[in-house]
Write a structure and sequence with these properties.
Length: 260
């Protein structure tokens, strides 16, 4: 696992965008795994700037979202279908027909989850999956004790996750109790993983995921089992890492040919 510690959320976004661009360039047009929430916003802003400068073209890139709420309409501004359209597809000029979000409204939820897995497999899998992390260590909405072998399925959101996401809704009770999420097994199948985190509120989740034991109690620790996982974080999120100086030293001495 590569751990990169940077000074600000903006720098985290710029470096993660460069990593994504380099992987997608090699895989052109490529398959991108996208995340919602606050953490990836600086990445999408950096990718939009790269697009405006003509440095990347995502118009033929496919994308799959990590997760979706169950129980709110697709047209709700906080459905992940709406969020991905507003924050990813439009600013990055992606083709909406090539971008999928799990169908949280499906009458047959299990069939919708199977379809989603099959759609990812049908395009040859995800080249690079972008991840945020919850304060309780969830990735996607794989809450603590999720199986490392899990595939796309319905999950109950942890009370902590509902409370953290209440900021996006008028009323805390409006946050759905359920979601569809790619499983940890689905996420681990992506060829590259990039996890970003900013701020002290993520410091414990980062410490446990990066330096703790591999445990379903901290789903982010699944990254320790992936061959190409990059964790890009700011000083706040890095504040509890025991080997922070080693990660800084490693990055400062990264061979030129390995940089992105
Ligand atoms: C979102 C997702 C979640 C978030 C996590 C952190 O699609 O899968 O795992 O990445 O809840 O959310 P923020 O970035 O809002 O702190």
């Amino acid at each position: 696992m590569e751990i990169v510690i940077l000074d600000s959320a903006e720098e985290v976004g710029v470096l993660a965008a460069r990593k994504i661009a380099s992987v997608l360039k090699a895989a052109t047009p490529g398959v991108l795994g996208v995340a919602t929430g606050s953490s990836p916003l600086t990445i999408y802003a950096a990718l939009a700037t790269m697009r405006q400068r003509g440095e990347i073209d995502l118009s033929r890139t496919r994308a799959f979202a990590l997760d979706e709420y169950v129980g709110i309409a697709e047209s709700h501004p906080e459905s992940y279908a709406s969020v991905i359209r507003r924050e990813v597809v439009e600013p990055l000029a992606m083709n909406p027909d090539l971008v999928r979000v799990p169908d949280g409204r499906a009458a047959d939820i299990e069939a919708a989850c199977r379809d989603y897995e099959e759609a990812i497999a049908a395009v040859g899998g995800v080249d690079i999956q972008l991840l945020g992390i919850g304060a309780n260590g969830h990735i996607g909405f794989n809450e603590p004790t999720s199986s490392f072998a899990s595939r796309t399925r319905i999950k109950t959101l942890a009370p902590r996750t509902r409370a953290d996401n209440a900021r996006f809704f008028d009323n805390a009770d409006d946050v759905p109790t359920h979601c569809l999420t790619q499983g940890l097994g689905t996420i681990l199948d992506a060829r590259h993983l990039v996890l970003v985190a900013q701020g002290d509120s993520k410091a414990e989740a980062i410490r446990q995921s990066v330096e703790g034991p591999v445990s379903s109690m901290w789903p982010g620790s699944a990254l320790q089992m992936h061959q190409n996982a990059t964790v890009i974080i700011d000083e706040g999120a890095a504040s509890r890492l025991e080997l922070a100086d080693y990660y800084r030293y490693t990055y400062a001495n990264k061979p030129i040919w390995q940089r992105y």
